[in-house]
Write a structure and sequence with these properties.
413 residues, alpha/beta, TIM Barrel, eight-stranded parallel beta barrel, three-stranded antiparallel β-sheet, disordered N terminus
Length: 413
């Protein structure tokens, strides 16, 4: 999902990775009666800019459906049990929503009906295969450009121009406006009401990643002047805005469809220890608390969410952010809470020549899972992303399956 393009310039923690089609795995099949329970094995299925699916905009409904089912079948073949499907990539929808337009990534035209219901189909077909389907929403990203006139007529961002902030070449809803928070919750909860999804899922995008360009600011002065008066500084106010989104949505999900989980997958560093003694032994350029205004540690400690999937997208021994150290830091953070801890894995980095030597080794990811086996707080892993799960570049995903996923398993109850 070109989701870490920012890292290429600012964090030196980027990539592109891959896997290769159709490695067969013995013992295929969704026979849930044979499975051991208690381990989440997931993959993200990204739709923004057609990252994973559909392969291009404008395919027929039958072609789109066939590609979607192929991804679900691959998940079963790899003995995964969870697919995290991006259904609201840019203030739009992959289901017939009364609040937001059909996504352009289906037909090439925002607002155009694709002639079928991708989310409804994904839920039904995933469950038929014994897979959980987590619906992945991006709360505040509106467009990957800064021209509101390019949005379809009637788009909420055009109807409410005061809600929108251009920043870094994109449009975002302003998290500091209470009406925005209420609207995005309403839009997302429509899917929760309509479909028996197993979870609502956010990734790492709250306030946008900092853009390393002089003069670029996220202009929320008016909202801060109106709504931030009780806060000592803008940073605390911004964090409170995101806290409210998370806490309120968690409660509403439970009210609308009891039993549906709420999970979040943040950038893997909350704060560096040099910034905060409670932080991790890292030297990351980005810290979610300070740069994205997302207090991910707080959400875990207060049990506002059901699960957390920190994106530990670095190799073991990486100097600025060592996978092994972060694994233990997050385990300690989750210990004694009701929040399940899963780990996000950078399958997309495997075999990328721009990455450190560790990512050229097909065994690197398998070593990640071996480390986690000795950490009781870790209850599973999620791989970014579906295209690479299929591609099996350098055989790394097949190695994970052979070493760790020889038998199917249920996700944690």
């Amino acid at each position: 999902m070109s989701r870490k393009a920012f890292w290429a310039t600012a964090v030196t923690l980027v990539a592109a990775g891959g896997l290769a089609a159709g490695t067969a795995i013995a013992g295929q099949g969704p026979d849930r009666r044979r499975r051991a329970s208690g381990e989440l094995r997931g993959m993200w299925l990204a739709t923004v800019v057609n990252r994973d699916w559909p392969s291009t905009a404008g395919l027929t409904a039958d072609e789109q459906r066939a590609e979607l089912l192929a991804h679900l079948d691959t998940a079963v073949e790899r003995h995964l049990n969870t697919v995290i499907f991006q259904v609201r990539p840019t203030a739009d929808a992959l289901w017939p929503s009364p609040y937001e337009p059909w996504t352009q990534y289906l037909t090439g035209t925002q607002g155009k009906d694709p002639g079928w219901d991708p989310l409804g189909t994904a839920v039904e077909e995933a469950h038929a295969r014994g897979l959980e389907l987590h619906a992945w929403f991006n709360p505040y990203r509106v467009a990957n450009h800064t021209d509101p006139s390019r949005l379809v007529a009637g788009h909420p961002a055009r109807e409410n121009p005061g809600w929108v902030v251009p920043y870094g070449g994109k449009l975002y809803y302003n998290p500091g406006i209470p009406a925005v928070r209420a609207f995005v919750q309403k839009a997302m909860l429509d899917a929760v009401r309509k479909y028996p999804i197993d979870a609502v899922h956010f990734d790492d995008y709250f306030y946008p990643y900092p853009v390393p360009v002089a003069g670029q600011v996220f202009d929320d002065d008016a909202a801060y002047d109106t709504h931030g008066g009780s806060f000592p500084n803008r940073a605390d106010w911004r964090r409170d805005n995101i806290d409210k989104l998370v806490k309120e949505l968690a409660a509403q999900i439970k009210a609308v469809r009891p039993g549906t989980q709420f999970g979040i997958s943040p950038f893997g560093v909350w704060r560096n220890a040099a910034t905060d003694a409670r932080g991790s032994d890292t030297q990351a350029v980005v810290q979610t608390y300070d740069d994205l205004y997302a207090d991910t540690r707080k959400w875990v400690r207060k049990n506002w969410i059901d699960y957390l999937v920190p994106q530990l997208y670095w190799n073991i021994g990486f100097a600025a952010a060592d996978y092994a150290k972060l694994l233990l830091w997050w385990a300690e953070t989750a210990r004694g809470t009701g929040t399940r801890l899963y780990i996000g894995e950078a399958l997309y980095k495997v075999g990328d020549p721009a990455q450190p030597a560790a990512w050229q080794d097909p065994a690197e990811l398998s070593r990640h899972l071996s480390l986690a086996r000795d950490v009781p707080e870790v209850r599973g892993h999620v791989f970014f992303s579906a295209k690479e799960v299929t591609a099996n570049k350098t055989g790394a995903m097949a190695r994970v399956v052979a070493d760790h996923y020889q038998q199917p398993a249920d996700p944690p109850c």
